């Protein structure tokens, strides 16, 4: 079963269980997926769905930080609940050690020497680790690998 089908099934389950919080978040995700399909006239595969989920999680993290800074814990808690639902659709994340090892292997493979090669390395790393690792962590690992 594809990730897209799984999300649709989870929406039906949330409707039957009358779980309005979860249902709202899943509908938000499905709307983002549908928007992408309509805008780009494509059928989303699992990689594209993971990218959308990643983007929505990043938005939730930014919102949580803003709400906590503004002392709006009620809104921050709502965003955290949405983020927890979205996290269930991401594949198992790589550990920091695995990310560092993968980045070093790609840097060696490309023969990258310094910070000037950051774009080339990030392009290859994104293609290989998309959805498997946090891109903020990946970026830091690439900078460290190219600096040293």
TrEMBL record:
It comes from the Bacteria. This is GatB/YqeY domain-containing protein. It comes from Limnohabitans lacus. The lineage of its organism: Bacteria, Pseudomonadati, Pseudomonadota, Betaproteobacteria, Burkholderiales.
């Amino acid at each position: 079963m594809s990730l897209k089908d799984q999300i649709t099934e989870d929406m039906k389950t949330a409707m039957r269980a009358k779980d309005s919080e979860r249902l709202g978040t899943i509908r938000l995700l499905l709307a983002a997926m549908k928007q992408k399909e309509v805008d780009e006239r494509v059928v989303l595969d699992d990689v594209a769905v993971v990218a959308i989920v990643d983007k929505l999680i990043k938005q939730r993290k930014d919102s949580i930080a803003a709400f906590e800074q503004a002392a709006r814990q009620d809104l921050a808690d709502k965003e955290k609940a949405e983020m927890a639902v979205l996290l269930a659709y991401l594949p198992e994340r790589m550990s920091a050690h695995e990310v560092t090892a993968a980045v070093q292997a790609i840097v060696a493979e490309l023969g990258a020497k310094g910070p000037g090669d950051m774009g080339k390395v990030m392009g290859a790393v994104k293609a290989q680790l998309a959805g498997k690792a946090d891109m903020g962590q990946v970026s830091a690992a690439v900078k460290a690998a190219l600096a040293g």
